Every structure is written in C-alpha cells, then in structure tokens.
Automatic annotation (TrEMBL):
<feature type="transmembrane region" description="Helical">
    <location>
        <begin position="330"/>
        <end position="350"/>
    </location>
</feature>
<dbReference type="Pfam" id="PF07690">
    <property type="entry name" value="MFS_1"/>
</dbReference>
<keyword id="KW-1133">Transmembrane helix</keyword>
<keyword id="KW-0472">Membrane</keyword>
<feature type="transmembrane region" description="Helical">
    <location>
        <begin position="396"/>
        <end position="415"/>
    </location>
</feature>
<keyword id="KW-1003">Cell membrane</keyword>
<feature type="transmembrane region" description="Helical">
    <location>
        <begin position="115"/>
        <end position="137"/>
    </location>
</feature>
<dbReference type="InterPro" id="IPR011701">
    <property type="entry name" value="MFS"/>
</dbReference>
<protein>
    <submittedName>
        <fullName>MFS transporter</fullName>
    </submittedName>
</protein>
<feature type="transmembrane region" description="Helical">
    <location>
        <begin position="197"/>
        <end position="219"/>
    </location>
</feature>
<feature type="transmembrane region" description="Helical">
    <location>
        <begin position="277"/>
        <end position="298"/>
    </location>
</feature>
<feature type="transmembrane region" description="Helical">
    <location>
        <begin position="41"/>
        <end position="62"/>
    </location>
</feature>
<dbReference type="InterPro" id="IPR036259">
    <property type="entry name" value="MFS_trans_sf"/>
</dbReference>
<feature type="transmembrane region" description="Helical">
    <location>
        <begin position="243"/>
        <end position="265"/>
    </location>
</feature>
<feature type="transmembrane region" description="Helical">
    <location>
        <begin position="74"/>
        <end position="95"/>
    </location>
</feature>
<feature type="transmembrane region" description="Helical">
    <location>
        <begin position="305"/>
        <end position="324"/>
    </location>
</feature>
<feature type="transmembrane region" description="Helical">
    <location>
        <begin position="362"/>
        <end position="384"/>
    </location>
</feature>
C-alpha cells in the first residue's frame, strides 16, 4: 500500500495537484466492468419491459380465445392493472426492507413460473378463465415489485457522477421496449396462442440470469424494526422535497390529460384503419425515445415542470386544431410525439432528483407513491374520455382539454402556485458527467454548459475537480486486479 501512496503522490505532483493516478486506477479497475454491469442492467430491464407489454396483450387475447366472451378479455385486462392501484405503496415498503436485487430475482422467477403454468395446461385444452385471471394478477403483482426494485437498484450499481446518463438511457430503453412489446404480443399470438407465453418464459429466464451479474451485495438493506408508520413514509418524504411533491401533482394532471386525449382519439377513430391507429398510438413512444436522447445531451432545465406544462399545452392545442381541420390522425401523432419528448425530459429530471435527494432507505416508497398517482390518473382517463366524446364529440372534447391545459400552464406562473406546484430543480443537484461521445455531440450542435444551471451556479468561483474522483473507492482486491491487468 506504501507503493500505491508513493505513486499517488507522484501523480499529484505531475498533474499540478490533480490526482491522475487515482483516475487511471479507477479507469483500469472499474471502467469496463461498470459499463458491462450497466449494459446487463439495461438489457435485463428492456427484456422485462418487453415481456410485460406482450403479456398485456396476450392475456386478454387468450381469455377471448378460450371463452369467446369480450367481457372475459376485459376481466383479464383488469386483472393485470388491479395490482398497480393497490400495491405500489405497500410494494415500496417491502422493497425498502429487502435487497432490491433479491426482489428482482424473485419477481422474474415468479413471472417465468406463471407463464409456464399457462403453457403446461394448453395441450389439455386449458387454461380456464380462473387460471388466466390468476396468472394475470400474478403478472401485475410481480411487475409492480420489479419496477420498484429496479428503481432502488440503479443508485447502487451506478456511480453518482454517471447517474444522469444512466437514468436517461434507462428511460430510453423503457420506451423502445414499450414500442416493440404491444405489437409483438399481438403478432406472436397470431402465430399461435402458446407462442407469446413460450417466448416470455425464455425472456424472464434471460432477464433473471442478467440480474444475477449485479453482485450479491447490491442493494443490501440494513435490518431494522418496522412499524405501520413506515408504510406512509413515502408520502411524508415527498413533503420534505418541494420539487418532488410538485412533480407528482404536475405529472398526475398531465398524464390524465394526455391519456384522456388518447381515449378521445380512439373513440373517434371509426372508419380508420387499424394500422393507422397503431402508428398514431406508437408516436408517444417515439417521442419518449427522442426525449431520452435529448435529456442525455442537454443541460437540465431549472423550471422543467413549467416547461412540461407548456409542452402539453402546445400538444393538446395541435390535437384540437387537427380535429377542426379534418386531419386528426396526423395532428394527434405530432401531439403525442411532443408529449413523449416532454415526458421523457421530465422523467429523467424527476428520477435524478429522487436518486440524489431521497434517503435510499425510503426511495422505493417515494417511487411507489409517485407511480400510484400517475397510474391512477391513467385509469381515470378511460371513462373521462368516453364521457367527453359522448357529451361534446371529438372536437369539443379536444378543445376542452386544450383550454384546461393552457389554464393550468398559465396558472403555474402565479407566485404561490409556482413555488408550490412547479418549483425549480434543487440548487445542489450534482452536475451530470457526460461521456466523450456525448460531449463531442454537444459541441457539434452548439450546446454549451449552462452557467445558470443549479449545479453549476453553486460551483462558480470554486476550483474545478474531476467528478470521477468523487466516486473513487479502491480496495485491496481492486488494486490486485489492476496490477494483474497491467502485468
């Protein structure tokens, strides 16, 4: 260890006070393994999301094929969504008490067994409707636990300086998987009713194998006594962080608006080809991918929640114009692309704040409260959209949504509302570290570091430091591995 200290001092002298030795050592021992771990994590996340989206289509189709009843298909869809409404808060409590890695492995293994049970009875004329509903409920429950555990695992695997990039890539992977998953589910079921379940059994096994590589100690939770009060800690934690509390209100409202708009479009799509309807509905996912890419290269916006509201206002205005000029599908598609871009930018900012500002011991509960609120709005949007079309037709419903959205965006600029519902990003949020590729891309498109960003504002007048040195943690085992590689 003395040799390492001597080398460290020489590095300091040669670099004028900057510890380049530590930087080289960190690069030697962890750069490749870290990238490998992140690649495994993103691949596993995308695979699991594809599985969830395909089963979201396959279970209702299987119920319809087995019974011939559209009502049975509706019950299968309800069985998939019911756990979302009732388990996010208690699921967050569970994930905060147990290793997220263990929760993920158990969830993926359980999903694999669930689809395998459906496959096993197909040669004998099954499954029954009761079996389908139970399997759908199991899928919903395990998917909720998986998403909460994944959110809690990311800060453990990723270094703080690279967290923003990791969140942006995770957001993009989720959107890509969502775009592919739903049409893939319908296509696979068209080949044979057993095909989507067989494919998903393989996908869940692969996802489970990839998560095994995150390390045994990843996300280990300290044992401590629990109480009923801990169940609601996520709500109390949100009140301690004005930005996160405001983000829940803003995203819940905007999710309600955009999903109501989707229901209005679907209700007024009589005579439109199914291909065109599918393309329009997929536009939001395309926007999400674009927004995730922009989030990775653009500096964070201080007033991201207000920007979010105005993007939604412009998008709903486009949709309303489309209904008036007789081109609803084209204008709705552009509107959904815009909301996808704005939603991805906001999601990356919100998740970054959650990871950096929330106590890791309560992170899953905070995420659970946030997702319960946003998914509850999605469930409410279906009857609301149908009611608006019944009362005021497609044009009237679209115009009403646009007016409500503009009023909300304009009201967000009023002092008391602005500070409570659309506060700025926290001033001490760490500045994201970009890869060389993204830095070069930013220079090409003319994006300069934002001197007014909250992170940079706090760093004005202070010596610049390499952010990678903030997260260097060298163990004797790492040094030995680095020496072996150097030799």
């Amino acid at each position: 260890m003395r040799d390492l200290a001597d080398d460290r001092q020489v590095g300091l002298e040669k670099a004028g006070g900057v510890d380049k030795t530590a930087e080289r050592l960190q690069t030697a021992i962890s750069a490749v393994p870290l990238r490998f771990r992140l690649a495994r994590l993103w691949a596993a996340s995308a695979i699991s999301t594809v599985g969830a989206r395909t089963l979201g289509v396959a279970y209702p189709l299987l119920a319809l094929a087995q019974t011939g009843s559209p009502a049975a298909a509706g019950w299968a869809g309800f069985a998939l969504t019911l756990p979302v409404l009732v388990l996010y808060v208690p699921g967050g409590f569970l994930v905060d008490r147990i290793s997220p890695r263990h929760v993920i492995l158990c969830a993926e293994a359980g999903r694999m067994l669930s689809v395998a049970s459906v496959l096993a009875v197909m040669p004998f004329g099954g499954p029954s409707l009761a079996h389908i509903l139970l399997a759908a409920v199991a899928e919903g429950v395990l998917w909720v636990l998986y998403t909460l555990a994944e959110a809690a695992l990311l800060p453990v695997v990723v270094q703080p300086a690279m967290m923003h990039q990791a969140v942006a890539r995770s957001e993009g992977a989720a959107h890509i998987a969502s775009i592919a998953g739903r049409p893939l589910g319908g296509y696979l079921f068209g080949i044979g009713r057993y095909v989507p379940f067989a494919v998903n059994a393989v996908l869940f096994a692969l996802s489970c194998a990839l998560f095994l590589g995150t390390g045994r100690a990843a996300g280990r939770r300290p044992a401590r006594p629990s109480s009923l009060r801990d169940l609601t800690e996520g709500f109390r934690e949100l009140t301690r962080h004005p930005f996160l509390g405001g983000s829940v209100a803003v995203t819940t409202f905007t999710n309600l608006m955009v999903n109501t708009l989707i229901m209005i479009f679907v209700a007024g799509s009589a005579g439109m080809s199914s291909l065109k309807i599918g393309i329009v509905l997929a536009a939001g996912g395309v926007g999400g991918v674009l927004g995730s890419f922009l989030a990775a290269i653009l500096p964070p916006v201080r007033r991201v929640l207000r920007v979010h509201l105005w993007i939604w206002s412009g998008a709903l205005g486009l949709a309303a114009v489309g209904t008036m000029v007789g081109l609803p599908s084209y204008f709705f598609a552009v509107a959904l692309v815009a909301t996808g871009i704005g939603g991805a930018l906001s999601n990356v900012a919100i998740r970054s704040v959650e990871i950096h500002k929330v106590d890791p011991a309560t992170l899953a509960r905070v995420v659970g409260v946030s997702r319960l609120s946003s998914h509850g709005a999605i469930c409410l949007s279906a009857p609301l959209g149908g009611f608006m079309v019944t009362v005021g037709d497609v044009t009237g419903g679209s115009l009403l949504l646009c007016v409500l959205m503009v009023l909300a965006a304009a009201g967000s600029g009023w002092g008391p509302v602005r500070e409570r519902l659309t506060p700025s990003l926290p001033a001490d949020l760490p500045e994201p570290e970009l890869s060389d590729l993204l830095q070069g891309l930013r220079r090409r498109i003319g994006v300069r570091p934002d001197s007014g960003s909250p992170a940079r504002a706090d760093l004005e007048g202070t010596p610049k430091r390499d952010s990678r040195l903030m997260s260097v943690h060298v163990t004797g085992r790492d040094v030995a591995c680095a020496n072996r590689r150097a030799g």
